[in-house]
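== Folding the chain ==

***
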Amino acid sequence: MDRLETATDSPGDREKMDIRELIVPAERLWPGEAWAEVPLAFVDLDRTDGVPESLALPPCPVIGLGDPEHPLAAHLDAVIEPPVGAEAIARQVMARPRSAAVIVQLLRLLPDLSSDAGLAAESLAYAVLQGSDEHLRWRAAQPPAARRAEGRLRVEPAGEALVLTLASPENGNAIDRHLRDALHEALSLAALDPGIARIELRAEGKAFSLGAELGEFGTTTDPATAHAIRLATLPARPASRCADRLDVHVQGACVGAGLELAAWARRIVATENAWFQLPELAMGVLPGAGGCVALTRRIGRQRTALMILSGKRLNARQALGWGLIDEIA
C-alpha cells in the first residue's frame, strides 16, 4: 500500500506516513500484548490464518483490510469497504486518536446493551470527550457563532398519524436547544399514545438537517451537568420507544444529530439528492444525540464505525446499499 499524507492539527502542515506501518499481525490481538500509545491498527485479512485462540482488541481502532468473510473480520472494529478507504480512516484517526479510541470502545459495548443503557453509555462517553484536549482545541479554533433564529417544529395531526416537520429551513434545520426540546416533547407524547398509528418526521427546505447547532457547543461547560441534561432532554430516548411507528422522509443534507434522530425510524425514505454524514470525530467528540446506538442497530457496529471514523459522506445510493435508508423516492 502506498504512502499517504496525514493531516496534523496545524493548518497546512502535513506529515508523511506509510500505512503499511500500521498493519499488525493477528497474533498480536491477545490479552498479553503490550499496546503502548498505538493510535490505530490495520489487520491484513488476506494474509491471516484463522483467529487468535485468546482474542483481545487493543484500546484503539482495529480495522480489517481484505476479505470481509474471513472468520476474524466480525471481531474487528470495522472492515474497509467502499466508499470508505483506509486512507480516510487513517487521516481522521491520526488527527484525533484519543477521540477515536473512545468511539470504538463505546461501539464494542453497544450490541450487548438495551437502548436505554446504550444511550446512557453514549452520553457518558460523550461527556469524557467534552472535557478532552482534542475537543477543546477544536472549540478554540471556531469563529464566534452568529445569532440565528430559534429552531421550529410544526406538529400536525393527520387522522391516526402525527406529522412532525422541522420548520427552520433558513438555518438548515439545525437542531438547537429549542428544536431539541420541541422534538423531545412531541415524541414523548407520541410514545405514550397508542392511538397514534404512525409518526412521520419531515423537514422543510433543501436540507433535512445540518445537525446540531454549532453555536451551542460548550454552552454547558461541566461534562456531568451536560450528561444530566442529555439524559433528560434528548429526543433519542422517546424516539427509541416509538421507533416501530416512526417514518422519516429525508432530502438533501442529513448530518450529525439529524441523522442520529432519523436512524431510529422503522423506515427512512430519501430523495435522490440526499446525503448522510457523521462529522463529529473532526470536532473531537462522538455522535452524542443517540446516533451511536441508533446506527449500530440500523447498519451494524462496523459500518457505524466506518462512518464515524472516516467522516465520509454517503450519497443516497450508497446509503441504500448499506441499509441506512430503505427507499429512494
The first helix runs from residue 86 to 95. The first strand starts at residue 3 and ends at 7. Residues 1-15 have pLDDT under 50 and may be disordered.
